[in-house]
Prior knowledge:
15% of the residues lie in helices and 31% in strands. It is built from 2 helices and 9 strands; from the N terminus they run E-H-E-E-E-H-E-E-E-E-E.
Amino acid sequence: MTSVKLTRIVEISGVLGAAVSVFAWLGISPALTAPSPSSTPTPAAIVAPAPAIPTPTVAIGMVKVPTVIGVKEDQAKRVLETSGLRLGKVTRRTVAGGAEGTVVAQAPSAGQEIRRGSSVDIVVNQRGKEKREDD
């Protein structure tokens, strides 16, 4: 995708030299424009490039997968739904060192781009034997 640049126009009336000095002091190199002969005369304008507007990095219809590792299952579901995704398969597994009831793994991983409405599978830490639930 291409960046879009805007132009800021500042009207100067009567103090062109002082304004150019101020812009130069601010690090803006002005480009002076004069009114066209066919139009009504207006004060000269200083045209300075505006900062580039950031462009989206995710294609339309795609969303970046948020991280849900370390949060409770119900909170993970809310985070995914807020991002336009669904909670997929939930696998419960005993994992040493993780807090019981928290997400210890997810697929796809955080930061990947997937279609809006897609499912994200999670593994939730639990005590006892392993089981799998389908949403």
